């Protein structure tokens, strides 16, 4: 059963005349008759009462017409929804992002973009690194805002922000007043680390590998906010980006003298997957307003 057969069927049922229907459909009358006969053969019942070239729906035809009309309307609605969702001016942009980025970066980005494109809508999904990676890989989101270390060969990567990392200690810690520190200065200190699902963990591990210095974690937290809370209570030290949501009272943020201690945040997407015009325009916006200007 083909879509054109259903469209032919509804036209014939509306005009109740084969010749008029064939002219309306711009096909020959024999071709139309063949299509209707083929449809009736597939269904196993006649759909019309025939009187020459005049035709009229029988009870099977009336029954079938109701469902065909609904099905074709559903298809039309689906086509319209896809067009609206992918249209760069009215579409939906699906983005997943790390929890900590929901404090300032993502809300500011969404607001700025919607000021420029007010009819565009966002579908936002936040979570830990494992959550949002799965969301992107399964195609539930078009784009992902995360840390660079989570990228793979089939991913495109666009830098949005490079954030310096700081050694963070309690304001009562013996090192709290130091103007700067090397990681070697933390030797023997209890270190509050991060579990695998936190986006910053891979960055910190990579930097430690380059220094050749290993710290033993006393506790691995689920997220950065928990790390900051433990440090505030004097339960250890850590390395964190100076970002909203982590700037708690009772913390001392100390610049790191070792080179390369920064956290790179960016936009990631699958290069082997279709991106709607709405998503592509958003990528262009981020490239122009964030990568170039460094906001």
Can you describe this structure?
This protein has 3 domains: 3-85, Winged helix-like DNA-binding domain superfamily/Winged helix DNA-binding domain (Arc Repressor Mutant, subunit A, Orthogonal Bundle); 92-159 and 264-292, 3-Layer(aba) Sandwich (D-Maltodextrin-Binding Protein, domain 2), CATH 3.40.190.10; 162-263, D-Maltodextrin-Binding Protein, domain 2 (3-Layer(aba) Sandwich). 41% of the residues lie in helices and 24% in strands. The protein contains 9 helices and 11 strands. It has helices at 3-15, 18-25, 29-43, 59-86, 105-116, 129-137, 201-211, 224-232, 277-292, and strands at 48-51, 54-57, 92-98, 121-127, 143-147, 155-170, 191-194, 217-221, 238-241, 251-255, 262-270. Strands 3, 4, 5, 6, 9, 10 and 11 form a 7-stranded mixed beta sheet that branches. It has a two-stranded antiparallel ribbon with strand order 1-2. α7 (201-211) links the parallel β7 and β8 (217-221). α1 packs across α2, α1 (3-15) packs across α3 and α2 crosses α3 (29-43). It is rod-shaped and about 100 Å long. The two termini are 55 Å apart.
At CATH level 2, the architecture of the largest domain is 3-Layer(aba) Sandwich
Number of domains: 3
CATH superfamily of the largest domain: Periplasmic binding protein-like II
| Contiguous helical run count | 9
The CATH first-level class of the largest domain comes to Alpha Beta
Overall pLDDT level:
87
Q: Give the termini distance in whole angstroms.
A: 55 Å
| Series of H and E elements | HHHEEHEHEHEEEHEHEEEH
Low-confidence stretches: none
Shape: rod-shaped
The tally of beta strands, per DSSP, is 11
Radius of gyration: 31 Å
Portion of residues in beta strands equals 15-25%
Largest β-sheet summary: 7 strands, mixed
What's the oligomerization state?
single chain
């Amino acid at each position: 059963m083909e879509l054109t057969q259903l469209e032919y069927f509804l036209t014939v049922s509306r005009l109740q005349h084969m010749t008029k229907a064939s002219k309306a459909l711009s096909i020959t009358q024999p071709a139309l008759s063949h299509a209707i006969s083929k449809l009736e053969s597939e269904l196993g019942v006649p759909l019309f009462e025939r009187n020459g070239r005049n035709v009229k729906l029988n009870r099977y035809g009336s029954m079938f017409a109701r469902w065909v009309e609904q099905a074709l309307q559903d298809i039309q609605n689906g086509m319209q929804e896809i067009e609206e969702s992918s249209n760069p001016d009215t579409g939906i942009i699906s983005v997943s992002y790390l929890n900590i980025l929901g404090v300032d970066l993502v809300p500011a980005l969404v607001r700025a973009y919607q000021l420029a494109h007010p009819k565009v809508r966002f579908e936002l999904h936040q979570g830990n690194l494992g959550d949002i990676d799965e969301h992107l890989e399964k195609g539930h989101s078009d784009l992902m805002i995360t840390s660079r270390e989570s990228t793979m060969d089939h991913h495109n990567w666009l830098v949005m922000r490079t954030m310096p990392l700081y050694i963070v200690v309690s304001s009562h810690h013996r090192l709290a007043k130091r103007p700067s520190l090397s990681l070697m200065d933390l030797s023997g200190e209890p270190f509050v680390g991060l579990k695998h699902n936190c986006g910053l963990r891979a960055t910190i591990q990579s930097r430690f590998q380059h220094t050749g210095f290993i710290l033993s974690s006393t506790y691995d937290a689920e997220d950065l906010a928990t790390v900051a809370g433990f440090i505030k209570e004097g339960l250890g030290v850590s390395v964190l980006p100076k970002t909203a949501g982590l700037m708690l009272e009772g913390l001392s943020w100390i610049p790191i003298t070792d080179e390369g201690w920064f956290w790179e945040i960016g936009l990631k997407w699958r290069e082997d997957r279709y991106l709607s015009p709405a998503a592509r325009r958003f990528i262009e916006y981020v490239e122009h307003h964030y990568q170039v200007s460094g906001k």
